[in-house]
Specification:
By secondary structure, this protein is of the alpha+beta class. It is built from eleven helices and five strands; from the N terminus they run ββαααβββαααααααα. The chain has one domain. A five-stranded mixed beta sheet has the order 1-2-3-5-4. The protein is globular, with a radius of gyration of 21 Å. This is 3-methyladenine DNA glycosylase.
């Protein structure tokens, strides 16, 4: 049985951490098996490849289980050879002090961004139009997929709606013609002021922040952020101007009232899941930064 010791919340026996590693690897394999098969075959996937290309996460990293802060592993776990870990009397554990010296400023930025995302006013009125703004009046769409409404129909949807994107890393891919149509000009510097929990890309980015936080994020939370990012990516593309039906996806026709209503309903469900994971990431950061009472 896992047991507590001074200065360490939990100590896992070798049998316990091996079982957790095995379960993590099995779950990760369920997420990566088809991706690896496509990679071996040289086949691209316009929806799912995004999770390993835009987000520069290696498949091997997704399979790597971390116990998280405050957990020591007895015996000789592979973590003893990994960066960010140290040996203590209780066992091998995350080297919080060493990591804080190297990554403390990055952790503080991520903590501030995640915290402000939770407190900034949430918006559910963008209707996924960021993807439409990325192909507005251009002959070079970002994906090799047909436009469901054609070029002119796509342009008309952009012109008939208000663009209210709050996410800088989506806004920066808007075409030059689309940028002036957004409610506001977004910059990297203003990102913490406008990032908000209703944003589909802010939800997806929890996967990015978990990747950057590395060893301080427990394996279960790490895979939870990936799973959420995958589900958000599906909505992102089903509501996009692209026709993904050839890949087995549906259509959320945001150019119609019914499509807008479906988008918002799914967006809210994803945002609620994201809020739970965001709180868990903030808790891990607070613990690593020594900000717990």
């Amino acid at each position: 049985m896992a047991r507590t010791r001074p200065d360490v919340l939990t100590v896992l026996s070798e049998a316990e951490w091996r079982e957790q590693m095995r379960a993590h690897d099995k779950r990760a394999e369920g997420f990566t098996r088809k991706h690896m098969a496509r990679r071996r075959a040289g086949t691209k996937h316009p929806v799912y490849d995004f999770l390993f290309e835009y987000y520069p996460v290696r498949v091997s990293h997704l399979h790597r289980w971390h116990p998280g802060v405050g957990v020591a592993l007895e015996g000789k776990p592979p973590h003893s050879e990994w960066k960010g870990y140290t040996h203590r009397a209780e066992g091998v554990t995350v080297d919080v002090a060493g990591l804080r010296q190297v990554r403390g400023s990055s952790w503080a930025f991520i903590l501030d961004l995640l915290s402000r995302t939770m407190t900034n006013p949430a918006h559910f009125d963008c209707f996924g139009l960021h993807e439409w703004a990325m192909v507005y009046r251009t002959n070079h769409p970002r994906h090799d997929l047909p436009l469901r409404l054609g070029a002119e129909g796509t342009n008309q949807v952009v012109e008939d709606n208000s663009i209210r994107c709050t996410h800088f890393d989506a806004f920066r891919f808007f075409t030059p013609s689309a940028r002036p149509l957004n409610l506001r000009v977004l910059t990297r510097e203003s990102q913490p002021a406008y990032e908000q929990r209703g944003c589909l890309h802010a939800t997806m980015d929890l996967y990015k922040w978990a990747a950057k936080l590395g060893p301080i994020v427990p394996g279960e939370l790490w895979l939870d952020t990936f799973e959420l990012a995958r589900d958000a990516r599906i909505l992102d593309m089903e509501a996009s101007p692209y026709d993904c039906r050839g890949y087995g996806f549906g259509v959320v026709p945001i150019e119609t009232p019914e499509g807008k209503a479906e988008y918002v309903a799914r967006q809210r469900e994803l945002a609620n899941r994201g809020e739970v994971l965001r709180h868990r990431l903030v808790a891990a950061l607070n613990q690593a930064l020594g900000r717990l009472d």
